Sequence to fold (623 residues):
Amino acid sequence: MQAVIGSTRRSLQVAGAFFRLGLQQELSYPLGFITNQFSALLPVFIFYFVSRLVEQPDYFSFVIIGLLASRFMDTGVRGFSTEIDIAINRGWLEMFLVEPVHWRLLPISMVQWRAVQGVVNALLMAAIGVALGARFRTDQLWAALLIVALGLVAGLAIGTLSASLKVLAKQGDPILFIYGLLVQIFSGVFFPVSELPSALQWISWLIPHTYAVAALRNVLMPVGSDLPSMSSNTAMLALTGFCVIVFPLSLWLYGRALEYGRKLGVLSGY
Amino acid sequence: MGQDLRRTDEGARQRGPRRGTGGDERFAVDVRNISKTYIPSPPMMRVLLRSAIKEPVHALKGVSFQVEPGTICAIVGPNGAGKSTLFRTLTGLTTPTTGDGFVHGYDVTTQSFQVRKVIGFHAADERMLLGRHSVKENLMFHGRLQGIPSKALPRRIRGVLELVNLERAAGRLALALSSGMKARLQLARALLHRPRVLILDEPTGALDPVAAYQFLEIIKQATVEQGMATLISSHRLEEIEALPEHVLLLNEGEIVYDGHLDNLRGLWEQPRLEAKFNTPEAAAAAVDLLGSIDGVEVVRSEDETVVLSSTLGVGDLFAAANGRLDEIAGITVSRMPLRDLLAKMLIPDEQRR
Fold:
């Protein structure tokens, strides 16, 4: 029991160190933080005007919820990979790897600050969306939070898979490139999956984004909306399944990639 | 990394440094017959990353040595000798192809996590510092990753900053420090968790001679006071001479010499004789004469001066010259510069000429 407490305390200490690192980095580049927030908010304004052309009355709410879900997922998907990129280019990866930190703790530790950024960004998007006329239900906020958490972990699983390649390849991100394309078209962020040709809809159900978007819509879309959504229980079950299977698998692959890089002697290169 | 992560005993580490069970307990570093061969990336991997090498590179070939606690071992060798690979192996950044290495008793291959707990590493690359963070923040971050308790951390940081003489720069951003201060900050970071083994990869490369001298004095002091084993690589030979305890000479992945610098001189050094003649003609005649004597090598000849490297003593030299050095005005015997000594050991005679 003492070992578990010690291990947990140690993990929290490491997580705290990386959180502070992210915060201090952000404070070092305040203009970067502001421009990042603004660029993330841009789609809200774009889809406000697009929604005025769409006859469906709840389309703006529909797409804002899709953007919110996507924002959370992207934090997990892109956060770790981006942090690994930064660490490789600034020469920090070698420093992290010679510290007595479990290498498998790095994905979660390094992505924390980006998760906070994602939350702040999503709240701003929601607030601006509401100000521009989007309507959300608030009676199932706990379910929404659970979906967001599952989405983050599912996204981190994909991000960790991508980072596994990155620690060896250093540049280029084939996993995120392909995944990003699939998300744009098949995840249902901008239009319902049912609008896709039926022969292609199966692709949507392979992407965790689709479940996070569908589940969040189910709990946040206004009552009476006739835009399609999925039962949140079904979506959460699918997301949980994805997290349980893919997250440990991605951590295992990441560990194998580091071990392979260690054997080849390429961990500290760029 | 899977195996060593599973073997980690987090609880035991929290209680403080404990000697591992492998290797010879007398030594802080015990390297046994380690070889490292870098292989080109497999063809499938080349889609991801172009391999820097086309043929296998044997970076280390059966290297064995030991370093005792409280001593400094200087690792010397030309570029490509295998110094950095050796350090990467000891810090767990790469694995040996064959052989065993133990740091404070922990196996560098299978107990990399524990090894990383007991080593302090000063990399050659100053980018390993967090440039946009203050000196203190750099140390706080490292201290947290090292698992130093929060309450003890400020005290430790004060102590180590005092040791490296950076107390007054605690609030300055790392990127605003001079090269000397950055090197001292890296040293402070490497010493913060009180390592058992300190590994310094060309730490004085960017320092001026005065800063390098101060830096080495700190290392000498810390090594003795903390009872660490310190491994240092450097291209500055005057620094190696200032750290005379233990020299490991590497060349093309092999140990050429392992021992005390004085013993190295005893084995390889030939006294330098600088003879001054009354006239350039007498000097030129002496070059012809002396060059034909076994065990004598004319290093340089200029005007009235002839510099010789000789296995013979001055008396034997005169005897061999058989009284034909009558126009000699003076003779000085000096030690062979370390640079020449190493060149003599590492570079074949025909290449040196």
Observations:
- The two ends of chain B are 49 Å apart (CA to CA).
- Residues 1-18 of chain B have pLDDT under 50 and may be disordered.
- The CA atoms of residues 5 and 119 of chain B lie 17 Å apart.
